[in-house]
Automatic annotation (TrEMBL):
Name this polypeptide is given: EF-hand domain-containing protein
Any one biological process term the GO annotation gives: regulation of dephosphorylation
Annotated Gene Ontology cellular component terms: centrosome; cytoplasm; spindle
Gene Ontology MF, one: calcium ion binding
InterPro entries assigned to the protein according to its UniProt record, in alphabetical order: EF-hand-dom_pair (IPR011992), EF_hand_dom (IPR002048), PPP2R3C (IPR039865)
Amino acid sequence: MLYGDDPKALEMDFRGFVELDVAVNTRKETAAIKWLFRILDLRDDGFLDRDEIRMMTESMVANLAKLEGWSNFNPDDIADEVIDMINPKDPNKITVDEVIASRMADTAIGILIDYYAFLKYENREEESAS
């Protein structure tokens, strides 16, 4: 999917790393959204289903617990929030076109892949109160 000789290799080459970095840091752009969506589409079936989204939110919650020493977040609730943000036709799967049309790609993808974006989203009410 990225680059290299062995598609089953569990590592990425430098070009893949640079593309990932650019996509993560420009995830409001259509090209970045499409690139990241391909990475997030774990089953390579053209959409993100609830299970794929939940796997990512479980991972984020586990990392939060490990790095911060606590986590009171429910992965199912976070997955539901991401799906609600995108507002897909079918609530059990999201297409890349729906992500783009939602205008919430930056936030939704950030929740799934970016620790700091996740924390910023989860603490948004506290930040707006201050």
